[in-house]
Amino acid sequence: MSRARGLPVILCLDLGTTTGWALHSAQGVITSGTTRFKNDRWQGGGMRFLKFTRFLGDLESQAGPIRMVFFEEVRRHLGVDAAHAYGGFMAHLTAWCEHQGIAYEGVPVGTIKRHATGKGNASKAMMLASARQRGHRPADDNEADALALAYWAVEHRLGGA
Asked: Which branch of life, at top level (predicted)?
């Protein structure tokens, strides 16, 4: 992990009902985790997105002003429900970024996997192994994907800071 000071705070997300996140601090430290946005039977369909927007605000208030957001850009979904959920999360994320004046960018899945493992079609196990090789202990593949995206962003958008 790099330890440069004065870098922009960046947030990297693997969007979904279980969202993986990685945060690159101004000191160059990367922290990560997963958050689940599943509704219970008493909540309407929009509650997951309200929870997601609150999560973004909470992250920003804890980490300091986020300057850039990167998210895994998925072009193919295995099911209609997953496609709808992804679209909702992406819409709320981009609207939140626009409202906050934060730059954002979608990065194709294959690009992230290739950067992390050398293979654009890397398996979940390979992505987990890549995160572990960098000293992280991801809870699942969502967190591993967000971590891989953070390292891609540092190298390709922050010049390897």
From this structure: Bacteria
